[in-house]
Every structure is written in C-alpha cells, then in structure tokens.
Design brief:
This is MADF domain-containing protein. The chain is mainly alpha-helical. It contains seven helices and no strands. The protein is elongated, with a radius of gyration of 35 Å. The N and C termini lie far apart (100 Å).
C-alpha cells in the first residue's frame, strides 16, 4: 500500500491515542490494541485504509526509523538549521517516547544472562593453572567442599563383625 502524508498522520494519531506500548511486547493485550487501531482505520471514509495489524505495526516502525535517521543526519550536518517539525514529526516523537517508556521485564533477566555468559567465557579461556588457583580460592571461601575420602575397608569389616556378634547374642538369648 502506498501511504500518503495524511494517512501517516491519521495512523500516528490513532497509535498515540490507543497506545499499544502500554502492554508487554508479544502479549495478547498488545495485539488487541493493534487490532483496535486497524478497526478504526478501516472504518475511515477518507482517506481510505485497507490494512491489517501487521501492516500498521510494520509501517509505524518504518516511520520511526526514517525519523531517527533524519534526526541523526540533521545533528551531524553543520551550519544548517533544521526545519520546524511538522505535525507528523511531533506525532512520531510522541510514539517514540511511548515506546521507550513501555514496560520491559526482560531487563533484569538479560543482565543476569549476560553475567553468566561472561563467566562461562572466562572459565573456558583460562589456563589449567588459573583453574586450579580458582578452585583453591573457592575451597578457602567455603564454596567448594573438599572431596570426601573413602573409609578403609577394615573399618567396615569391624562394624560387620560387631553387628554379627550382637545379632548372635540376641538369638542365643531368646
């Protein structure tokens, strides 16, 4: 579909009004929010829309990426004064702000996963001497318990003899 400037403005207004970014990414509620936006847009008489929720989600991402690229180019350019932001630019800025303020529950999990991955990489790259040194430090701190040594078989044999004698005494007594 070819998107006109007016269609982009209406789309951005509706996304700003409905705010699907309130819900967690990939959740059914967020999908429902996008579908509500589609229903409203498809009911419009002028300009005509014929879209589904994936199309508007993708187009919003395209608009946001174009806007970010435009801003980067303007910041890098020296000696020019950027034009006044249009209504579409203001709406896209609002959408970016909504998206950045959306809840993310994976942040803490990602940091923990990154830490574990870094530890695994470091352990894989260390030398044998470093590995032994780390094992000794861990044993001093109480992380790793020293290996248990097996008892001598003589101790087990003595125990079995004593048990056999006590069982024999019990049998004689009855």
């Amino acid at each position: 579909m070819y998107w006109t400037e007016q269609q982009n403005i209406i789309l951005c207004r509706e996304v700003g009004f409905e705010n699907p970014y309130v819900y967690k990414k990939g959740s059914p509620k967020r999908s429902e929010a996008w579908k509500k936006i589609v229903d409203v847009l498809n009911k419009c008489d002028y300009p005509q829309f014929n879209v589904d929720h994936r199309a508007i989600w993708y187009h919003i991402n395209v608009l946001v990426n174009k806007y970010k690229k435009k801003i980067r180019v303007e910041e890098r350019a020296s000696g020019i004064s950027p034009n006044e932001p249009s209504e579409l630019d203001d709406l896209i800025q609002k959408i970016i702000a909504l998206e950045e303020s959306s809840p993310t529950d994976t942040c803490g999990r990602d940091k923990a996963d990154k830490g574990k991955a870094e530890d695994a990489r470091m352990k894989a790259m260390e030398r044998l001497s470093q590995r032994k040194k780390r094992a000794l430090e861990g044993a001093e701190e109480g992380e790793n318990k020293p290996k248990r040594t097996r008892g001598k078989t003589g101790d087990a044999m003595e125990f079995l003899k004593e048990r056999a004698q006590s069982c024999a005494e019990i049998r004689k007594g009855t």
